[in-house]
Amino acid sequence: KLISDYVLTEVLEQLSDELTEFLLDTACCPRLCAPLCDAIRNRTGSEEMLESLVAQNLFIIPLDNRNEWFRYHDLFREALLQRARIIDSEKADTLQQSTINWLLNHGHVQEAIAQIVSSEDTARLAQVLAEHGNNLIHGGFHLPVLEWLRYLPEEQVQENPQLMMLNVWGLYFANRVDGLEPALAQVEDLLDRQVADSH
């Protein structure tokens, strides 16, 4: 609560309207780079904005030596997010969805999924896991995939052969062999039912 009041009264009021809007628009990004900020705001000039924030040492942390990626200080970002939602919750949701789409389209799948989980969008999570889960598992991320599957309502997984197979592969690579047989049996039951239904 205190940092939120501090941000609103002390920091934002001293900035230009343009910079304030940039901060509020990009608070939904777990990490920032100019192309991401340009894309979600549907305009150019983000590189200059980021440079200005860095020059003012404004709660922004460079993440590489090339000054390509940054992140906001966690408490600062939370306060900005809260403020952005109060001002216009619909716009804040749209910006978050645009951020998720950009991350997915540019190969930052795990970051995108973390955003989806934080927004509690189980339908989108199921869709993204079905599409990217195999690659994640074969890339060594079987434990996060198992964890994300647990976020989904059980019936959502039980009705989707792709998600059920992800669970099987996740268990296999995690060496949780006890869970494999019942999981495979469930997949077979579901496929049998779907074949019967299709006839």
Task: Describe, in plain words, how this protein is organized in 3D.
This protein is mainly alpha-helical and 199 residues long. 72% of the residues lie in helices and 3% in strands. The chain has helices spanning 2-11, 17-26, 34-41, 46-55, 74-87, 89-105, 109-118, 122-138, 142-151, 154-158, 161-173, 180-198, and strands spanning 60-62, 70-72. Strands 1-2 form a two-stranded antiparallel sheet. Helix 6 packs antiparallel against helix 7. It starts with a helix and ends with a helix. 27% of the residues are buried.
Q: Looking across the biggest beta sheet, what order are the strands in?
A: 1-2
**What is Rg?**
21 Å
Give the beta-strand count: 2
Structural class: mainly alpha
The H/E string reads HHHHEEHHHHHHHH
Instruction: Give the strand content.
Output: under 5%
Shape summary: elongated
Helix content: over 70%
Integer average pLDDT: 86
| Biggest sheet layout | 2 strands, antiparallel
- N-to-C span: 59 Å
Number of helices: 12
Give unreliable regions as ranges. none
